[in-house]
Amino acid sequence: MFNRTIISELVKWAEKPRRKPLVLRGARQVGKTTVANLFSKNFDQYIYLNLELAEDRKVFEDFQNVETLLDAIFFLKDKSRSEGRTLLFIDEIQEAPQAIEQLRYFYEQVPELWVMAAGSLLETLFNKDINFPVGRVTYMVVRPVSFVEFLEALGETNALEQWKNVPIADFAHDKLLELFHRYALIGGMPEVVDTYAATKDIVGLQPVYESLLVSYLEDVEKYARNQSLAEVMRHAIRSSFAEAGQRIKFQGFGRSNYGSREMGEAIRTLERAMLVNLVYPATQVTLPILEDRKKSPRLQVLDTGLLNHFAGLQKEVLGTKDLNSIYQGGITGHIVGQELLASSFNVLGGLHFWVREKRTSSAEIDFLYLYNNLLIPLEVKSGATGKLKSLHIFMDRAPHTIAIRLYSGKFQIDKLTTVNGKAFFLLNLPYYLVAQIDSYLNWFLTAYPDRID
After folding, report:
1. Could you tell me the domains of the chain?
2. Distance separating alpha carbons of residues 240 and 398, to the nearest angstrom
3. Tens of pLDDT along 100-155?
4. Predicted model pTM
5. CB under 8 Å to 386, separation ≥6 — which residues?
6. E strands, 11-161, in order
7. Are strands 364-365 and 353-355 parallel, antiparallel or unpaired?
8. pLDDT digits 0-9 by tens, 263-273
9. Which among 388, 436, 375, 380 has a CA at the least distance from the CA of 416?
10. How remote is the C-alpha of 433 from its chain's centroid?
């Protein structure tokens, strides 16, 4: 199981006439190596180096010049330099800092070779004394698999075909909502999805979740700069699942005695390792998006399935008819955030939410969605449209007339009016259509030519 959409992004990279070596970033066990192996089928030759192996690592440690390095690599793997299009994939590149520094020579001196690299701990090395080839490499993020890939793994071909239709037929709603609930329960970690697709046994997934957590806790020794920080990070990992989907404060995080400085360093280190995301609010309704780092961030962990397992929420998710009724709506917002991230391969891409600048106001919008240079408010809520008070406040200030609500109901469009008399359109989309937001906005702008501008 892997993020199928990223393969098309890799093809675009490969077709660039002056491409740079590509570094795949992402947390451990999100499928970076699998993606590279599958992408390699587009080439005449594939050379795979795992720098955790001393034999593969040695060619970089003995580096003299790029020609000697290439000769050593091709000789080691019994490949020919004249065999056609060759993809070189350097896995676990953080095990040889020399290899990271030498990526620049591939860009400058060997443009005919396609070079990719990945490292599960690479993100934590950015602040250390390693000479990264700035400007000579490009980055792409690999994340847990999306709802669409979940459907593919389960062999839900008919459901997937209906999901692609814009607008979706009413008769497909109940089944797709049930499948999305299952996705929200299980999450998108490749090993978990593969295991479930093969067994359909939710209880049998527990050892897989536990194994993932143990691997992340063990990696802390490599992330942390000292033993004291390692202990704080272990606490942060365990506590993150209980705090995910909520706005947090570093001081005393996870009911601890840790101060703001030490806990802030621990959580930001986990963010560089891409195990968590700190989602900061913005106060404006137009571009550019300016995060207010003085305000409390919302915590997004790597995967909602991991969250459900370690927060003990699996039974609640399994039996619900509306995700928004669980965990104060946190599970719904969290899986929506995960879906939004799944379609973003840009390292700088992320999530944003909106709060009113006025201090006495509690107005808050779950997400800001960028579409054609517009900031579209995206609310994740059930219930009547008349209760969307924060949305009305945002729309009064927005220079456009389109808003989105994600909920458990069927697709429909409402024409509403704010308290101050501004008319706007509300696109009500079922939760499972998060990845189709662009398609529905495009359809709406064509189907409603008399919309309010």
Report:
1. 4-141 (3.40.50.300), 207-447 (no CATH)
2. 34
3. 889 999 999 999 999 999 986 665 555 555 566 767 899 999 999 999 999 999 99
4. 0.91
5. none
6. 22-25, 45-50, 86-91, 114-118, 138-141
7. antiparallel
8. 999 999 999 88
9. 388
10. 17
